[in-house]
Amino acid sequence: MTIYDLYEPFRNELQRMALQTALASIWSYQRLAAASGQIKLPVSINGSIAEFHIWELHTLCREVLLNASGSENTLSTSSGMIRMIDHIRRISQGISERTVNSGDDALNALHTLGHQQVRWQYSRDEARLFRAYHIYSDHELAPIFRQATGISVRDIAVCIERCMHGSEGAAVQQCIAATRHNQLSASLHRV
Counting Cβ atoms within 10 Å, is residue 162 exposed (0-12), middle (13-18) or buried (19+)? Predict the structure, then answer.
């Protein structure tokens, strides 16, 4: 089975996006997620709302990381974000139409969906953060992470730990201030 015809329009639009602005937009949308993993965006002045799920946002994030190489800021508007989420849904629907031909096929598809979605029903993120910490701490990835974010993997892990075990707003502000101070101190020591 080939799905290139389903994926190509999505990929082409992704390639026109600027990587950093797209990731920043995804991060800002993720902050709107309810505990249920659902994100609601106002679509128009008449009060209509578009809903999507955090796993769709993470799928979009993965695809942005793999494909974004342009200069457009598609995700800066809710209509741009909704258009990209609709691409993901269209591709998923198309794959289902091409592959689910029996009850067994449907059960296999449900198994895949379960792995994609159930992890978001558990609100504790320690396991995911622990995994990400170990991946980005790799001796080859850590310098790239630091260059892209301006903060070390260890420092961001400390910030996250403070957020998870303290009052979020105050902990984040303290962590950012301390990190900036440490970066300033480190840069002064290099001079």
Answer: middle
